[in-house]
Amino acid sequence: MSELNSKNIYKIAVVMGSDSDLKTLKPAIDILKEFGIKTEVCILSAHRTPIEMMEYAKNAESENIKVIIAGAGGAAHLPGMLASITCIPVIGVPVESKTLKGIDSLLSIVQMPAGIPVATVAINGGQNAGLLAIEMISLFDESIKKNLKEFRENLHTQVRTKNSKLSTIGPDNYLQNMN
Known about the structure:
The protein is α/β, with parallel strands linked by helices. 50% of the residues lie in helices and 15% in strands.
């Protein structure tokens, strides 16, 4: 990826309700790092640290945070609670739960009441949350937009290369080479 020309003034927050959510959110952190986006990572629980969570959301804009990625499992209140306090876009990442495999988290995040939207990605969709945040920032930063286009072109090339290899060596050999 080409070097960013921006002054890296934008910040994206990656917030989780518990340290057990870090594994799910690590792909978001990694892709933000790959794009050279300043990232703030913290643990804030809507239920166990509600005062700190509210203060964080109230101060996010003054801290130059442009997007908040919030992972949550179970009741998954964190993304919605953050969104209810700030006008900064919030992307909810449903974390897979033991009981309902993340369906509970997904439904909790997408069922926000009218007027308090939360963007939502797939269960355990950390990387896509990071990319969606990057897309949002690319709306006002041409160097980030350029890097995003380059990232997409690389994805295109990777798929074309895999298809060519599959056509050349056949499905059985391809599968054998994958293992």
